[in-house]
Design goal:
The complex is a heterodimer of chains A (352) and B (410). Chain A is α/β, with parallel strands linked by helices. Chain A is built from eleven helices and twelve strands. In chain A, a hairpin with a 2-residue loop joins strand 1 and strand 2. Chain B has a domain of 250 residues: MetI-like (MetI-like fold), CATH 1.10.3720.10. Chain B has a three-stranded antiparallel beta sheet with strand order 2-1-3, with no helix packed on it. The chains are: A alpha/beta (352), B mainly alpha (410).
């Protein structure tokens, strides 16, 4: 079994605020293998983005502080590295693309200037050589007439084009891991499909790992190898994409699937999860999900004991007292090296 | 997979499709756009015209107002010579060369900004070195020499400068020239020492422009550096630096300048430095505010995620996006510095009698002892007014150009 490329172990992050610490990430465990796509799913504010930003240590300190945990990347704990070592990893080994392509490019420079700067920094190339690499990077992401596009400013491009440019910039230095923070949320559906297709193609060509942060289960079904579901700053369930979609065990994951319209099903009101996401400053005691949970039946365990992530089935971890066999399941470190065998489209019954 | 639609079908209206020849779409950055918007406004144009006139007059002052004639032909030998050249200093020649090169480049528009700056600097150096080596230090000039020679009939003909008096020419060869109101001989009258007011005002353009630009340059440089770090790092550093700024802002500028002139003597350079050193707080505030906004933007996060060094993030990626308000403020501080120098000179604590400045002339308007000398008060006063007004007009235009609500969509 290969070593994971990136392993997040028991990560705890806090934000200092005037009303005490807020903990956006609690005991998060994740593993990504080379060439694999891990989807991190959850509602806004569940800690997905903070986890991603923690990996690159892009959170401003203060207010952010890393309470405990390790982030192993190729055997090195990123949390122990100094700023200059971290800088040599950012962009070169781990790259990131952001949600908003409209604001992710600097408006005052041409896209060529911006790609070339990254290439010069990480590959030591300059002048014509860097320009050639930048041109190739644009061609790779399917931008027509790359030589001319290099001289254009971001405002001259559409959202989909800019996201392609962002991807080209992120991939120009051949990173081993790409963190994609909701890369398609701001784009319309046809462009979304193109961008995801492009990411899949580039991933295959370069054996690059992708950490795909999203709240779109359709995107997960079509792209992910393994999935981690986050709720209220914790990972509540993680499994391979097939296992998770076929046999979700956590009530939150179940609720998510029920709230998606299905093609061909009888039309009736969609199921929703009652209640709202709890405020991070006033998390409920016990299981964070229990006030919204349909399995909760006046039992004191749910509201007093916080469940941890246990391997309830082979390669399927979840944290819920009400799962059959949860009490006897082993507490192991989640690590799924699985890659999907099916092609995209097999899980289309849940596509949004 | 089809990726063509994203590159052609989702463009905004008005976008040139890829089929048209390249270079059709305007390639303007925010800064270029702002500058262009600024200088198409009539107010800013008036300001620019006035300041260009001042710069031209100031730089070519030795050729416009000089006691030495432009050309003479001596009767005895028949030789033609140009006495004006012998009065030029290396700085006069260097400035003139830089000015000519700059104007040429501005009108020609063939070279990039970087190339132009290099060429201007090279031209300045090329002009300065030979003139510095060739021109010997001159004795105290005898201003009336050529007038006396001409009166004695030594020259066949004489071509004089427009104003035939040097700024420090007290016209000792003619009696009763002090404090004369405007006449055909002295168009704007004479000062309390008998100097030609127009000549002094022309040379004073130099002081007025330099003091504004250099002190503002110092202020903007410090302000950008400190403000940038404050905004970027925020937190404790920001808190401490902000308190320092508040302390600095509590110092009354005029009084500080008065004290410094009293202790260290009169010097244009000292004055410029001090005005710059205490004037950066407003620029720092602006840059700080901009950086506090910019640091949360995605492209800054993206630059960090690319592993770019801090220097590049702050100065290359954030600064060009946040410098605009500082440019606006700078035009107002140039005006402020000119006023401050005039104030000091008016109080008699500015430059020495050898260095002409508008404020110093204003001072003479009341210190002549013979009541109110209107011509010495009016003309320099009007010059100060127009110059400050010009800078304010440019600043206003820049502010309007930067206001997104006022900016017209292209």
């Amino acid at each position: 079994m290969p070593e994971p490329l990136l392993q997040v172990r028991d990560l705890n992050v806090a934000f200092e605020t005037s009303r005490g610490d807020v903990r956006p990430v609690r005991d998060v465990n994740l593993a990504i293998y080379p060439g694999q796509t891990l989807a991190v799913v959850g509602e806004s504010g569940c800690g997905k983005s903070v986890t991603a930003m923690s990996i690159l240590q892009l959170l401003p300190k203060p207010p952010a502080k890393y309470l405990s945990g390790q982030i192993f990347f190729q055997g090195r704990d990123l949390l122990q590295l100094g700023e200059s070592e971290m800088r040599s990893i950012r962009g070169k080994d781990i790259a990131m693309i952001f949600q908003e392509p409209m604001t992710s490019l600097n408006p005052v420079y041409t896209i060529g200037d911006q790609i070339i700067e990254a290439v010069t920094l990480h590959q030591g190339k300059s002048g014509r050589a860097a320009s050639t690499i930048a041109e190739a990077a644009l061609a790779d992401v399917g931008i027509a007439d790359p030589a001319r596009r290099l001289g254009e400013y971001p405002h001259q491009m559409s959202g989909g084009m800019r996201q392609r440019v962002m991807i080209a910039m992120a991939l120009s230095c051949q990173p081993k891991l790409l963190i994609a923070d909701e890369p398609t949320t701001a784009l319309d559906v046809t462009i979304q499909a193109q961008i995801l297709e492009l990411l899949r193609k580039l991933q295959k060509e370069r054996n690059m790992a992708i950490m795909l942060i999203t709240h779109d289960l359709g995107v997960v079904a079509e792209n992910a190898d393994s999935v981690a579901v986050m709720y209220a700053s914790r990972v509540v369930e993680t499994a391979t994409v097939e296992e998770l979609f076929d046999h979700p065990v956590h009530p939150y994951t179940e609720g998510l699937f029920k709230s998606i319209p299905k093609l061909g099903a009888d039309r009736h009101r969609l199921d929703t999860i009652p209640g709202t996401v709890p405020n991070p400053q006033r998390f409920p005691g016990g299981c964070k999900f229990h006030p919204r949970c349909h399995r909760m039946q006046g039992d004191q365990t749910c509201s007093s004991v916080e469940p941890n992530l246990r391997e309830v089935k082979q390669k399927h971890w979840a944290s819920c007292h009400r799962i059959d066999g949860y009490q006897t399941a082993a507490v192991t470190v989640p690590s799924i090296s699985h890659k999907r065998q099916v092609t995209a489209g097999a899980a289309t019954e849940v596509s949004a | 997979m089809t990726n063509a639609p994203s590159s052609s079908s989702s463009q905004q209206p008005g976008y040139e499709p890829a089929a048209t020849p390249p270079q059709v779409t305007a390639r303007r950055t925010l800064l270029q756009q702002t500058l262009r918007d600024t200088f198409t406004r009539p107010g800013a144009r008036i300001g620019v015209v006035w300041i260009t006139i001042l710069a031209t007059v100031g730089i070519f002052a030795p050729l416009l107002a000089n006691s030495a004639p432009l050309l003479i032909k001596e009767k005895a030998t028949g030789a033609i010579s140009s006495p004006v050249l012998s009065t030029l200093r290396p700085s006069d020649i260097t400035l003139a060369v830089i000015y000519v090169v700059t104007i040429t480049l501005l009108l020609w528009k063939r070279f990039s900004l970087g190339q132009s700056i290099v060429m201007i600097l090279a031209a300045g150096l090329l002009a300065f070195l030979p003139s510095f080596l060739l021109i010997k230090s001159q004795d105290a000039p005898v201003y009336e020499r050529y007038r006396l020679n001409e009166a004695a009939g030594q020259y066949e003909w004489v071509v004089r400068t427009i104003v035939p008096f040097s700024p420090n020419d007290r016209v000792n060869d003619v009696s009763g020239t002090k404090l004369k109101s405007p006449s055909g001989r002295h168009w704007l009258g004479t000062s309390i020492f008998g100097e030609d007011v127009l000549s002094r005002m022309m040379y004073a353009c130099r002081v007025a422009l330099t003091i504004g630009l250099i002190s503002t340059g110092i202020a903007v440089t410090i302000g950008i550096f400190v403000g940038g770090l404050m905004g970027y790092f925020a937190g404790v550093f920001d808190l401490l630096a902000m308190r320092c700024i508040e302390i600095l802002e509590a110092i009354p500028r005029l009084i500080l300048l008065l004290i410094i002139t009293v202790f260290f003597g009169r010097s244009l350079y000292l004055m410029m430095t001090v005005i710059g050193l205490i004037g950066w707080t407003a620029d720092a505030r602006f840059i700080r505010a901009e950086f506090l906004r910019l640091r949360n933007l995605d492209f800054v996060a993206a630059a960090k995620a690319l592993g770019l060094p801090l220097r590049s993030i702050i100065f290359k990626h954030m600064l060009p996006n946040g410098i605009a308000p500082v440019l606006v403020n700078a035009s107002f501080s140039v005006a402020g510095a000119i006023l401050l120098e005039s104030t000091l000179s008016f109080l008699g604590l500015g430059l020495g009698a050898e260095d002409p400045s508008w404020g110093q002339l204003l001072n003479q308007a009341r210190s002549g002892g013979t009541g109110f000398n209107w011509w010495i008060a009016t003309f320099p006063g009007v010059a100060i007014f127009f110059t400050v007004f010009s800078y304010v007009l440019i600043g206003e235009a820049m502010r309007d150009a930067l206001d997104p609500k006022l900016r017209k969509r292209e």
